[in-house]
Amino acid sequence: MKITEKDVEYVARLARLELTGEEKVKFTGQLESILSYIDKLNAIDTKNVPPTSHALSLKNVWREDKLELCPENVRETMLSNAPEREDDFFRVKKVIE
Amino acid sequence: MDKDIAGFSAVELAEKIRSKKISCVEAAGASIERIKRLDPRVKAFVTVTEKEALEAAKLIDDKIARGEAAGALAGVPVAIKDNMMIAGIPTTCSSKILKGYTAPYDATVIEKLKNEGAVFVGKTNLDEFAMGSSTENSAFFTTRNPWNTDCIPGGSSGGSAASVAAMMAPLALGSDTGGSIRQPAACCGVVGLKPTYGRVSRYGLVAFASSLDQIGPFARTVEDAAVLLKVISGHDPKDSTSVDIAVPDYAASIKKDIRGLRIGLPEEYFAKGLDGEVETAVREAVKVLEKLGAIVKKISLPHTEYAIAVYYIIAPCEASANLARYDGVKYGFRAECSNLLEEYEKTRGEGFGPEVKRRIMLGTYALSAGYYDAYYGKAQRVRTLISRDFENAFREVDVIAAPTAPTSAFRLGEKAQDPLQMYLSDIYTISSNLAGIPAVSVPCGFTRAKLPVGLQLMGRPFDEEMILRAGYAYEKNTVWSEEHPNV
């Protein structure tokens, strides 16, 4: 699989990652070499093999839909972890102009 | 005095505390003292929780003085990998992006350990977000191998492994997504166990690859690992992937003999790439098990050579989704910018280290439009074949024995420039994460350079008892658990 610097820029944008020029060059080469190693999977015929999404075949784990209040000190620690806080909210840059 | 305390196993120490020969404060103090003395060289700890440890120890001493039940691990010092949350203490994941983050609540494993009276002495270093095999990807510093400080301790749980090997604590917790408990255990000459997927709750463990992650114990003896495993195991409504089946008394059942136990040697694990000295040590270990009455036979796990390729699709894909939460809004580091999109990109670009970025890039690429089936879908199908290999093997044998890692601990910097070479360190450990089966690494000797070698024992799902039993029998008939590094 050939990877170009343009591919790297596109994927970085999807992942919301700012990369330096140096990182773009480095990742282009490294992703290509890792992906060509991964290409060895194409040697196996998996047409009739079901995928495993999970090591256990658990299905539909349900619980009672009941309200549990977050203890005050836990809530407070969570809010005070925010880089910017206003009262009981996380403060972010304006999204809509 | 402190050396004596540091030298006790967790089981011995718990017994001395119960019989009031040693107080919890003394035990915690000895552990902290040793950390202060040795950690400037070993660098196992990101945070040492001296004050909290001594306070907790005092409360347990009071409980014991009042004659109350104080728990199975009352007063025993435990080190915790810094990707598990202890309320009120920073959780860093050895990443800059979690700068200033304080855990709001206890992980379930922490709650369980507190209920049994364990005392937390600190949070240990790891490869950033548990991605790596050497701790060189920590954003803070590299942990050193206590057997040779020019060598890596393994990773990602390198700090936990090194802390137990250097006797700074008798017990530690790690997490294992592709070998992150077993490989450092092998490198540092301690016991490290990855439980069956679903055996231990991950609530409060920072997620890396959710279909693979498990928490497990480090200890200097198999018995200690068994005791710790029992404490942390069990169903938790807060982790829907934890399974509701009974937790056996591992420490009791490991003492049964192993006559008639069928052990399989997978030919694919003794092939090209395996270091000669490691191979010799592992084959010698298997002979010991054979002498103790085990029946050894050759088996085949034919899809072994595809495990790394499968893993390096599945783990980065899941990681790229799990790590989307680090955006500078709810916690941690934020790079100030004039608009939100730039702020996301800059925060993540500056906050994550190179290996984390590489995996986010790889995962995002593999999940991007047009590639999903070719990569993630394909990897999931081959994953099924790897699981079937184990199902077939376990029809013929009870335990699979193999090396834990292809080499002993390598030198600092040796593989840091070549990600693919580093990924190959996990060649023998990754398959059991993909299949969800339990596996333990037990020390089985040394190379000529006096670096530890690990014997890996893999078992059927939820049959940790069998691999612990084989490990215990081996340990009791060899001398390795009595050798300690001279740090």
Structural features, described:
- The complex is a heterodimer of chains A (97) and B (487).
- Chain A is mainly alpha-helical and 97 residues long.
- Chain A has a domain at 5-43: Histone, subunit A.
- Helices cover 38% and strands 4% of the residues of chain A.
- Chain A contains 3 helices and 2 strands.
- Chain A has helices spanning 5-14, 21-38, 72-80; strands at 85-86, 89-90.
- A two-stranded antiparallel ribbon of chain A has the order 1-2.
- In chain A, helix 1 (5-14) packs across helix 2.
- The mean pLDDT of chain A is 92.
- Chain B contains 17 helices and 11 strands.
- Chain B is of the alpha/beta class.
- Chain B has an 11-stranded mixed beta sheet with strand order 1-3-2-4-6-5-10-11-9-7-8, with helices on both faces.
- Chain B has helices spanning 2-7, 10-18, 24-42, 50-65, 108-115, 158-165, 182-188, 222-232, 250-253, 276-291, 307-322, 340-351, 354-367, 373-396, 419-423, 430-435, 464-476, and strands at residues 45-48, 77-81, 119-124, 171-176, 191-194, 214-219, 262-266, 295-299, 399-403, 439-446, 452-459.
List descriptors.
heterodimer; A: 97 residues; mainly alpha; Histone, subunit A; two-stranded antiparallel ribbon; 3 helices; 2 strands; flat; B: 487 residues; alpha/beta; Amidase signature (AS) enzymes; 11-stranded mixed beta sheet
Give a quick rundown of the structure.
Chain A is mainly alpha-helical and 97 residues long. Helices cover 38% and strands 4% of the residues of chain A.
Number of beta-strand segments of chain A: 2
What is the CATH C level class of chain B, in words?
Alpha Beta
- Distance between the amino and carboxyl termini of chain A: 41 Å
| Architecture (CATH level 2) name of chain B | Alpha-Beta Complex
CATH fold call of the domain at 5-43 in chain A:
Histone, subunit A
CATH topology of chain B: Amidase signature (AS) enzymes
Largest interface here, residues on each chain?
A: A-B, 52 and 76 residues
Average of per-residue pLDDT values of chain A? 92
> Percentage of helical residues of chain A?
25-40%
SSE arrangement of chain A, N to C: HHHEE
What form of chain A results from the Cα inertia axes?
flat
Give the overall silhouette of chain B.
globular
Counting copies of identical and different chains, the oligomeric state is heterodimer
